[in-house]
Structure to design on (352 residues):
């Protein structure tokens, strides 16, 4: 079985020759090949070429097409900028929209023309054309509706508006839902195998508020995408999402990307068998500042935990996006650890 087939089989809960591995390597791909993050952010060919080079050298089972988290917010009117050549785009902490009457300024969704959405579609198209037949390609929709609303309405303000002005909060969330779904549909049309959407600020809401102001809009996005695309759907929430795990499982996602703050054994025990887990090795320690031996130990423990609990739907990965300066040897060790659990010599996997 080739990598793409093994990921698909794993997500269906079928037996595969070995564990599969798909680290969240995004800006790492630019930094590792000496490209400025500004160029990686603003040039579709640069982004795609770095991901393709990473695939050829590291041989992961899945690659990720992603930039920073302002793609849709920019398309909806947020001002973004590059602080220097070695930084991706960033937005302002100040709200773009402060009242319900201002939401009329938000343009209708159009991923073919708004902001950098066409650029990201172009990068995805090139990656799919070059390596999509053999490798599982994940594209990040960017942000789920609540996270996107925080980018547009200000994260502190949005947290307060759920209490002070729920009508504004819900109206903004509706607009965000439309844009997230439309962008996801555009990425699906370019050939993505899985669409990943992040809702990390939602973890700060607490379970009750999460169920009111994040979960319903995650569910709506996934419902639209399930009806209109063939992609697998994934939900990423950074940090310790233990308190909302079962709520996340009801979002409609096929995959939950779990960060290192979640105990993997607990997640395997409480999540429905039909939900796949993607994760959850700490991207900082051991992947960024640990040794290859520490990475090997952490990966082995995660693989054995999934086996012990009978979790067939498990993809070994960093729990969150890799730091750009993650040592290549550590990433090789993470990916090789999956092969090591099949009895295949790891040297066969590495590029020659």
């Amino acid at each position: 079985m080739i990598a793409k087939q093994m990921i698909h089989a794993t997500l269906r809960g079928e037996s595969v020759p070995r564990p599969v591995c798909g680290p969240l390597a995004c800006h790492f791909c630019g930094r590792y090949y000496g490209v400025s993050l500004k160029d990686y952010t603003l040039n579709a060919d640069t982004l795609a070429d770095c991901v393709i080079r990473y695939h050829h050298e590291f041989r992961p089972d899945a690659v990720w097409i992603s930039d920073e988290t302002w793609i849709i917010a920019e398309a909806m009117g947020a001002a973004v900028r590059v602080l220097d050549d070695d930084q991706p785009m960033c937005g302002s902490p100040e709200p773009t929209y402060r009242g319900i009457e201002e939401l009329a300024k938000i343009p209708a969704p159009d991923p073919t023309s708004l902001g950098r959405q066409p650029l990201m579609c172009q990068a995805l198209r090139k990656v799919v054309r070059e390596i999509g037949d053999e490798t599982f390609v994940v594209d990040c929709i960017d942000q789920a509706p609540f996270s996107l609303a925080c980018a547009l309405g200000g994260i502190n303000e949005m947290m307060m508006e759920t209490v002070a002005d729920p009508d504004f909060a819900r109206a903004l969330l509706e607009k965000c839902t439309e844009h997230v779904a439309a962008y996801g549909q555009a990425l699906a049309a370019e050939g993505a195998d899985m669409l990943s959407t992040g809702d990390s600020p939602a973890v700060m809401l607490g379970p009750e508020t999460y169920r009111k102001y994040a979960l319903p809009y995650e569910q709506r996005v996934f419902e639209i995408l399930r009806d209109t695309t063939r992609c697998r759907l994934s939900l990423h929430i950074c940090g310790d999402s233990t308190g909302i795990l079962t709520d996340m499982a009801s979002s409609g996602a096929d995959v939950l990307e779990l960060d290192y703050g979640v105990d993997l054994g607990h997640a395997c025990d409480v999540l429905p068998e039909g939900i796949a887990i993607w994760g959850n090795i700490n991207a900082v320690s051991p992947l960024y500042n640990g040794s290859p031996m520490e990475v090997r130990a952490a990966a082995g423990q995660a693989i054995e935990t999934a086996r012990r609990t009978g979790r067939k739907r498990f993809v070994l990965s960093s729990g969150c996006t890799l730091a750009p300066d993650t040592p290549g040897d550590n990433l090789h060790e993470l990916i090789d650890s999956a092969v090591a659990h099949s009895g295949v010599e790891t040297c066969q996997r590495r590029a020659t």
Q: What stands out?
A: The beta strands are 20-21, 62-65, 80-82, 89-91, 136-140, 194-198, 232-237, 255-258, 276-281, 314-318.
